[in-house]
Every structure is written in C-alpha cells, then in structure tokens.
Amino acid sequence: MSPNCIGLIANHGKAGADEIVREIAGACALRSFPLRLEEHTAALIGAKSSGTPKDLARDCDLLVVLGGDGTILQVVHELGDAFPPILGINLGTLGFLTCASAADWREAIEAIAAGAYCLSMRSLLDVEVLRGGESRFRGLALNDAVISRGEPSRLIKLNVIVDDETLSEYNADGLIVATPTGSTAYSLSAGGPVLTPDSGVFVVTPICPHVLTMRSVMVNDESCVEIAPSREQPVIFLSLDGQPSVPIHSEDRIRITRASRCLPLATLPGMSFFEVLRQKLKWSGTAV
Question: Prior bond to 84 cis, omega within 30?
C-alpha cells in the first residue's frame, strides 16, 4: 500500500545530498505525492521545512533517509514515540540498513509510489541503568549497547548474568550486546557472528578479552541480560548505537531486554538479507 505522505531526511554533510534531495522533491511533485522535508534537509534546497525528525515521524507514513547506517541510527534516536517505516538510500560506503544506492533513488521512489516495498521488523534493545534499585537512565538501541573502558585505559571486569544465572566475568576492553541488526556492526568487527534479522536472539560479544577462549554467546531475545561492573572498577561508559556515552559506576547495574516495539525497516522487492550480505561483504564464492 502506498503511503499517504513521506518524510525526507538527509545527512546534510554528505557530498551530493542537496542534488538528490532536489531530484526526489521534483519527482514527488510530478506525481503530486505529499512530501515533507526535515528542517536541515529543507535548508539544502531552500525549501519549506516540516520540522524535526520527531515531527515527521508523527505526521508521515514512511521516512526516506539519505545517508548511511550512522544516519539511520541517528534518526532512530530522534524519532520519539512514533516509529514509522524507514527506507534508507545509501550516500556512504557500506550501509547494511540502507536498501538502495544513491544511483538507484528513482527505483526506490517508484517502489514507494507503488506500495511495492517490503518491511523487515527489527528488534530493539531496551537498556536501563539501575542504581540502588532506581532507574538512572533508559534508552532504546537498534544496533547495540556497548560498555567500554574509560580512564585509566586498562581492562575492565564485567559480570554478566542471563536470566539470573551467571554467564561469566569478562576481563576485557569492553562488551557488546547486539541485536541481529547490530550483528553486522561493531560485534562483527569484534569477532561476533552474523545473525539473520528474524533469528530471535541477541549476541554478547567481548571486546579484546584477556582470556582468548571467551567467545561470543547468543542468548534468546526473551532473556534478561544484566551487567554488573566489579566493585573496584573505576567509571566506565555505556553507549547505545554510538550515541553519547553514559557514565557507569561500580554500584550500577545495566539491564538489557528486548523492547516491546520494533522498527519497521523498508526494503526493495527482491533484496533479501542474504543478497545484502553478498553485496556488502563481497562474498563471491571464489578464492579471488
């Protein structure tokens, strides 16, 4: 079904973003298709603004995001309570969350106009920091929650408990708890597995562990993962999807569960997850 109104959000720092915004706006005008522009996106072409990403999320049936994975993650954290489908057009390099390249924006707009796009429901992490039983911070993550060392630069000790049973005490540079969507991001770089979006698990991946036998562990996404710094641990930091870090003290507990809602990620027809992997990771099936 074709959306009644789409919102357009561009990474205004990307080269060529203004040209593509102007072309998309023109294509939508020719179709008399309602288009609303985020404030910085509108400024690229001197057009009227429809407000912030949060405003567009409230008023639009679908958001088109021009940029890379980082742009989509930033937008997700600015949406507020409304989560309309997001269709990403890649202006960057890799882009696992985007479904079309900058050269294929016309195909993406045609699919939107025809209502021919598909939706992949992506699970989110619900991350809460507790101190003395009281909530000090709470947020959502599409990719991952990363606990990392601060100053001094040394290994940190983290006790990880899954559904009230100790998994291990990790002595490492840090720890990543990733969704299937985030399994192709930092967790993959740290040696974690690639998970399909519908796998129904989270992956716990240590960052440069002191004991080399410590590997990534997959847990059911209905589990509760609790992370407790060791008592003598100096202040460390928690970051969700690479957003600004939150300081974590030795008396804090980080509680991670699956969020009650999902993010609908739009994809073009015929573009499967495995096709994305083959393209992005350049899996040719040969040795050359």
Answer: no
Residue 104 and residue 100: Cα distance in Å, rounded?
6
pLDDT at 288 over 60: no
SS3 content of the chain, % helix, strand, coil (to 5): 25, 40, 40
Helix, strand or coil for residue 82?
coil
107-110 contacts at long range (C-beta below 8 A, 24 or more positions apart): 107/268, 108/64, 108/268, 109/24, 109/27, 109/28
Query: Which domains, ranges and CATH numbers included, belong to the chain?
Result: 6-117+268-280 (3.40.50.10330), 124-261 (2.60.200.30)
Q: Spot the catalytic one: 18, 55, 61, 69.
A: 69
pLDDT in tens, 223-259: 999 999 988 888 899 999 999 999 999 999 999 999 9
Respond yes or no: is residue 61 known to be catalytic: no
For residue 162, list its beta bridge partners: 165, 225
- Number of neighbours of residue 48 by Cβ within 10 angstroms: 8
Cα 108 to Cα 114: distance, rounded to the nearest angstrom = 10
Spatial CB neighbours of 245, under 8 Å, sequence gap ≥ 6: 148, 237, 238, 239
CA-CA-CA-CA torsion sign (169, 172, 178, 180): negative
Structure tokens at 90: 């890649």
